[in-house]
Amino acid sequence: MTYQLWYWPGIPGRGEFVRLALEAGGIAYADKAREDGAEALIKDMAERRPEPFAPPYLVAGKTVIAQVANILLFLGKAHGLAPKGPRRLFVHEVQLTVADMIAEAHDTHHPVAAMDYYEDQKPEALRKAAAFRAARIPKYCGWFERMLERSRGDWIAGKRWSYADLSLFQLVEGLRYAFPQRMAAVAGDYPRLFALRDAVAALPELQAYFASDRRLPFNEQGIFRHYPELDGA
Amino acid sequence: MTYQLWYWPGIPGRGEFVRLALEAGGIAYADKAREDGAEALIKDMAERRPEPFAPPYLVAGKTVIAQVANILLFLGKAHGLAPKGPRRLFVHEVQLTVADMIAEAHDTHHPVAAMDYYEDQKPEALRKAAAFRAARIPKYCGWFERMLERSRGDWIAGKRWSYADLSLFQLVEGLRYAFPQRMAAVAGDYPRLFALRDAVAALPELQAYFASDRRLPFNEQGIFRHYPELDGA
To answer: Which entry of A176, A177, A224, B179 is 20 to 30 Å from A136 by CA?
Structure first.
């Protein structure tokens, strides 16, 4: 079975966390909205049962699965992208914590109204981004670092990579894109997290993908946006 | 085995979503921080491996599980509080969407800095709350309503309640506490969601709990806070 992945075509966004798992797992999928466009996505989503709350969603035969962490839970089990037993729950816990940080990173440029433009909430964004840089980046990255320190291998849950490692890579990449000064300033505090980022970047399973145009660059329509005024060491 | 639930003792907060599942499932648990206090929680959390990112967390023998949706996924499977097969993923998807709305409801009073007081971010909160009332309440509640409409029973995933139904009840209760004017104004738009709220309130499994002092009232230290200036029809 070839899965269908549906996500907004112009940004890596939340879809990229699913895409990385599909690509690294060598799993066949059609990236539907990149083939057919955003209007096809809107139409498809409205007709699905159950109708997803938002993209991304994965269509697996008759099953429609939405919410990134839920999709990865499904793929992790079906394709061996996560350990079994209690560590499966731990990998999911890491993924849900990644999801929380992604939402906060998004809110640095959209703190008061998701529907409005960034330009219309800039004073609030400056304040939100300052708090995110000062308090939230250390809190989240410190926890990821401690989890890596306590792992029995180089990956978040042992000696094999899981989907959560791929997501941590994408999270660090996004943070480095959005907050290059701040992430450079704190890199030395989180050596294991940055080494994990490098290890995923070097995964043989992902080299063809990274070299392809399937891998989308970050931009200022996505979750991670580089507005220099929101960054600072 | 008696589970240990750890959560801040003075508020219903995110812990209540777990507590409702434990209570409705007739599952034995010790509500540790309500017995031993917040300092005991802080100490316990620091010593756990893996160390949770934040409360609530559940201790099940040697396993420590954090993130509300993850705890409920575990309890749902272990105690039959969710259907099997693809609908298990759907119930988890609903729960993750509830979690997203909870985070946004929290941010109405803490839009720019989680560490600061509400009083220090009031102009931003007024704007965030207005957008939440106008756009987010209809978006989320409309989706929950459609999911109930498409269910083959009165509950979110069929003819038996699941942990996600309990969470939807607590979500509606929290929203009614925080935004009584707005929720009264939209109640007619979401008849199934409000009927679900009533059905959970009437569950025989929960009557003893609701009548006990284990059930904590909402207050202005929690996620759902009633600040009249943030409400409006």
So the answer is: B179
Eight-class DSSP state of A115: T
Distance CA A75, CA A205 (A): 16
* Count of CB atoms situated within 10 Å of the CB of B157: 24
Q: Where are the beta strands (DSSP E) in chain B?
A: 3-6, 29-31, 57-60, 63-66
Task: Note whether residue B66 is domain-resident.
Answer: no
Classify residue B98: in a domain, yes or no.
yes
As a whole number of Å, the end-to-end CA separation of chain A is 47
Tell whether B114 is covered by a domain: yes
Q: Which residues in chain A are contacts of B100 at CB distance < 8 A? A: 103
Q: Give the domain extent around B171.
A: 86-203
How close does chain B come to A221, measured CA to CA in Å? 20
Strand ranges of the sheet holding B29-31, from the earlier edge strand across to the other edge = B29-31, B3-6, B57-60, B63-66
Give, in order, the Cα–Cα distances in Å from B47 to each of A92, A155, B42, B51.
21, 22, 9, 7
Backbone angles phi, psi at A123, to 5 degrees: -60, -40
Q: Write down the pTM of the prediction.
A: 0.98
Q: Which residue of A has its CA nearest to B87?
A: A63
- Structure tokens given for A152: 């029995």
Domain tally, chain B: 1
Give the number of beta-carbon pairs within 8 Å between A and B: 111
Contact A32, A57 (CB under 8 A): no
Which residue is closest to A141 within chain B, CA to CA? B53
What is the rounded distance in angstroms from the CA atom of residue B180 to the CA atom of residue A50? Answer: 30
Return the amino acid letter for B107: D
Residues 17-56 of A with CB under 8 A from B: 49-53
CA distance A104 to A98: 10
Q: A42 lies in a domain?
A: no
Beta bridge partners, B60, equal B63
Can you name the residues that pair with B63 across neighbouring β-strands? B60
Domain of residue A177, CATH code: 1.20.1050.10
Mutate to test the interface with A, among B18, B47, B70 (most CBs of A within 10 A): B70
- Chain B, nearest residue to A131 by Cα: B113
CA B128 to chain centre: 20
Q: What is the pLDDT along chain A (233 residues), one digit of tens a residue?
A: 899 999 999 999 999 999 999 999 999 999 999 999 999 999 999 999 889 999 999 999 999 999 999 999 999 999 999 999 889 999 999 999 999 999 999 999 999 988 899 999 999 999 999 999 999 999 999 999 999 999 999 999 999 999 999 999 999 999 999 999 999 999 999 999 999 999 999 999 999 999 999 999 999 999 999 999 999 99
